[in-house]
Amino acid sequence: MRTVITGGAGFIGSHLVEHLLEQGDEVVVLDDMSTGAPRNLMGSLDDPRLTIEHGSVLDREKVLATVRGADRVFHLAAAVGVKLIVEQPLSSLRTNIHGTENVLDACVATGASLLLVSTSEIYGKNASDKLTEESDRILGSPLKSRWTYAAAKGIDEAFAHAYWTEYGLDVTIVRPFNTVGPRQTGRYGMVVPNLVGQALRGEPLTVYGDGEQTRCFSYVGDVVPAMVRLIAEPRATGQAFNLGGAEEVSINSLAQRIIDVTGSTSHVTHLSYGEAYAAGFEDMRRRVPDYTKAAELVGFDPATRLDDIILRVAGEMHSRERREREPQFVRRQVILDGRSA
Ligand SMILES: NC(=O)c1ccc[n+]([C@@H]2O[C@H](COP(=O)([O-])OP(=O)(O)OC[C@H]3O[C@@H](n4cnc5c(N)ncnc54)[C@H](O)[C@@H]3O)[C@@H](O)[C@H]2O)c1
């Protein structure tokens, strides 16, 4: 099986690369290294079945050349993270809409099947008890860049569905809900790596708003195998699937659990959304998935508990920071950067 992963040097993508190499796939990563990095693939770089193509999904010819000869494509390349979207709305929109169109066209041209990675953000401010795949989307103004990620991913899904209907493209859509785990970066506003990093450094844990907003975090190691089973499942074609966590937790409780699990001496402070992002910034109070559909069709089971997730994130962050200070790491990084240039 020859598999292309766009965004394969990112957080979820790098876990997917490892999983597919273990399954015996030949894997080609297409990534522009904007938020991803070759170091995320450090454990797989010496595997001859892995090829890394440095390039953008906005480069139509490059996308087509990369997808040609592939059996399947996982499309993860995107501008991700509230901070990034708010700071760079135009390039984010371009990547998240035109980049996806290029991938869809390449799959139609080559006959490759496609897993389109969308997001739970498409549900916007819908705070229902359990969001099913049929739940309504409640979005703020399109003039607020905070909502353009959800708007663009919604367009991606509509495009994918139309390609399935009109061209018979074998495409399946997944909507991850706050997927977390080792190698996720906190640089673009992701809450778990940010709070864990602060706890490890003994700094105050910065919680935005009143902290009573809730989320359901799922472990990347539970989400990735479900994506792989879904792309291989003919009954999934043309449909969307929620992939989310089982436990609803407020961000205040998350921060306290991080302090407890890491044994940190830090305390929690609160920062208004206006100070964290921009005046008028809106967030959703809760986001709770109903993932019955994926559980029933491919046995999706978000079994890893939050405390274990925190431990794994903290363990990886701690050893990475130590490793990155070692001179041999710096030398290897220079070689990797050269290889991906
Ligand atoms: N992490 C989550 O909680 C979460 C939740 C819902 C959906 N998703 C989706 O999962 C996918 C992966 O997200 P992630 O959390 O791993 O983030 P990430 O930022 O680590 O991964 C995105 C990857 O795409 C690459 N990329 C960005 N623009 C590109 C371009 N123009 N051309 C080629 N590569 C490009 C980046 O360099 C990076 O490696 C995204 O599509 C995201 O929308 C993630």
Task: Characterise the protein shown here.
The longest helix has 22 residues, at 89-110. The chain is globular. The model has no long low-confidence stretch (mean pLDDT 93). It is built from 12 helices and 13 strands. The chain has a single domain (2-339), classed as Rossmann fold (3-Layer(aba) Sandwich). The protein starts with a strand and ends with a helix. The chain has helices at 11-22, 60-67, 82-87, 89-110, 148-167, 191-201, 220-231, 251-262, 273-276, 292-298, 306-324, 327-340, and strands at 2-6, 26-31, 50-54, 72-75, 113-117, 171-176, 179-180, 205-208, 214-216, 218-219, 240-243, 248-250, 268-271. The protein has a 7-stranded parallel beta sheet with strand order 3-2-1-4-5-6-11, sandwiched between helices. A two-stranded parallel sheet has the order 7-10. The protein is an alpha/beta fold. Nicotinamide-adenine-dinucleotide binds next to helix 1, strand 2 and helix 4.
The hetero molecules present are: nicotinamide-adenine-dinucleotide
Strand content: 15-25%
Q: Using the alpha-carbon principal axes, give the shape.
A: globular
Q: Do you know the CATH topology?
A: Rossmann fold
CATH architecture: 3-Layer(aba) Sandwich
Question: End-to-end span in angstroms?
Answer: 27 Å
Biggest sheet descriptor: 7 strands, parallel
Please write the string of helix (H) and strand (E) elements.
EHEEHEHHEHEEHEEEHEEHEHHHH
* Class inferred from helices and paired strands: alpha/beta
Count of strand segments: 13
Give the strand order, joined by hyphens, for the main sheet: 3-2-1-4-5-6-11
CATH superfamily: NAD(P)-binding Rossmann-like Domain
- Helix count equals 12
Uncertain runs: none
**Mean pLDDT figure:** 93
Instruction: Please report the first level of CATH classification, the CATH class.
Output: Alpha Beta
